[in-house]
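Lab notebook, bench 4. Still working through the backlog of constructs that have no structural model yet. Next entry is a single chain of 709 residues. Request: give me the structure tokens for it.
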Amino acid sequence: MNAFTTQVKDYVARVELNLPGEPVNKITRGVRDEIDGLLSELASDAAVRAIVLISTKPDSFIAGADIDEFVALRSREEAHELVRKGQALVNRLAQLGKPVVAAIHGACLGGGLEVALACTYRVATDHPKTRIGLPEVQLGIIPAAGGCQRLPRLIGVRNALHVILAGRQLAARRAFRMGVVDELVHPAILDQVAWEVAARLADGWRPKRRRRGVAGLALDRNPLGRRVVYAGARKQVLKRTGGHYPAPLAALKAVRHGIRYGVEAGMDMEAALFAELAVGDVSRRLVQIFFASTALKKDPGVEGEAPPPKPVRNLGVVGAGFMGSSIGAVAVLQAGVDVRLRDTDLPSVARGLKAARKILASRVKRRRITKHQYLRLERLLSGGTGWEGFGRVDLAIEAVFEDLDVKHEVMRALDRHVPDDCVIASNTSTIPIERIAEVVGQPNRVLGMHFFSPVERMPLLEVIVTDQTASWATVTAAAFGREMGKTVIVVRDCPGFWVNRILAPYLNEAGRLLEEGVTVDAIDKTMTKYGFPVGPITLLDEIGLDVAQKASEVLYEAFGERMRPMAGLARMTEDRRLGRKSRRGFYRYEQGERRGVDEAVYEIIEAEIASHVPRGDIGRRLTYSMLNEAARAVDEGVVRSPRDGDIGAVFGIGFPAFRGGPLRYLDDVGAAQAVETLEQLAEEYGERFAPCPRLQRMAAGAERFYPSA
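Model written out:
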């Protein structure tokens, strides 16, 4: 394979890792075999007294283990054997008898960090692309090559659990502050510093680890304190996951077992727990989502040969409100482009710029960027009431109120003021792009870029294309969306597009349940127990009831009775109950925090609390309203593939990832069973639950959305 190259100078061996034919370094079977032989040679070579391990990939130290090998596992025994081989290799590195310096630039994740932890000393670059962490729980497994043993002993149990249980990736500076790495340097001198450290280690120097805070020491160094840490960690995991994801609790168990009984016993526990998780359904679904989202990063968004995307260096945003300012801030922060905000009056522009700067400042507060970086990025933001600056933008996004007449006015102005090769996008959430593009002279450059709120946290972007949208415009919007750090799906133009199209029946059904007398708490708790991050009523408050009402009107007009919204929604907005943003909706809000259900809403929506709706039917009605609409939208070609549909649902509305997405979940349930359930619901609750033609055809032919594994 020849993944490693070794050079020896003054008793220091410089070992370069460069996995042939791969964009990043990863630990494959071939790499394991090669390094095993290499370690034997280095251990016996009298001319080598210290070692530097460095990558020659542009932005990758070691990105982790080979996931393809992991996916191929078919039994616990196979998984257990794979882990034991990995543990043996990393242990051998740790026990080599000669100091090893890990020179880290780029991704140092999973098995890559476990390799680095087995080294004597870790030098990392302060570059933004240097990310350090143990993300295994994000794939439904645990660090199992000693990560659950070495990290707690290096930085303390409390800090280690903070990293391991959430699968966090740390910026290099944060990893340095926590003590995960020993030294932070500029990329230009990484090689030199690592060699100098190795030479000092060869001469007998031993590094002194930085001491953690007094509170951390007090908790870590006595059994009672650790018990408090474990109990708090378990409580946080259950609060975050609802118990649906077994990996974080398994990782906690592995850490606890190792601290109590020793490293060797801890590794035994790591191997046993990994083997159990690796062949489980949750891990399989999370890995499928990982592969799907990874594939989307390389998907240009068009079929056949794709034209190159146009570079976007200047972005214009019309509408400096909540969405517009957030889009501008994220574009500056992630893509580093010049952003020009425009609104109708200077106070609105000022508020928009202030909101955008606040997002940038929050990154400084969380130490994601430095004050110097903040000052540089802030200067990329500007705004005004005129069209100055729009004559040089490469992409213009309108983010004004969800009203067709208002959007037409903006589109006419953009058509006059932006260059002919500028892509024009609408951030509409429901209005068909074809209607918005009617007033533009070149409708082939118009598309939708539907961001989700809050833009700085929500990972999905829907790029919506019409039959007229040019391929160059599509690939440009998709590429820029990825530059903004988004997972991008390209969807066909229709009312509601994909995410809001399948979300609307779910929210409407929640409204019907309310009007039938089911309590807000009962509805929300049912769906969080099912696996959604928040319940549908909470989601309505977060979206904004005025936005939800406007969207529901568009969808009801387009699709008729099955999309009829709850009558009480209009009464709520008439009462100026708009949700969190107005500090009152279905819930009460004080100082930005939710304080509980506002009991007055039952009178406003004219509902009497009832108990006749079976609890089981709450979940079935809500879930199957979404599943049925998802199958119908796929049949209409709204998404390009089931993969895109599931990623859109998971990343856009929080469909439970451990269930794989609505279409993957329908495959698990089986089309025949889904049709039977929908027919039962239709008989009891109305024709809106009638199974769509796609599901009926699938049930008749025993078909699936995805090929059988």
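Notes after review: The mean pLDDT is 94. The domain at 4-279 is CATH 3.90.226.10 (2-enoyl-CoA Hydratase; Chain A, domain 1). Flag for follow-up if needed.
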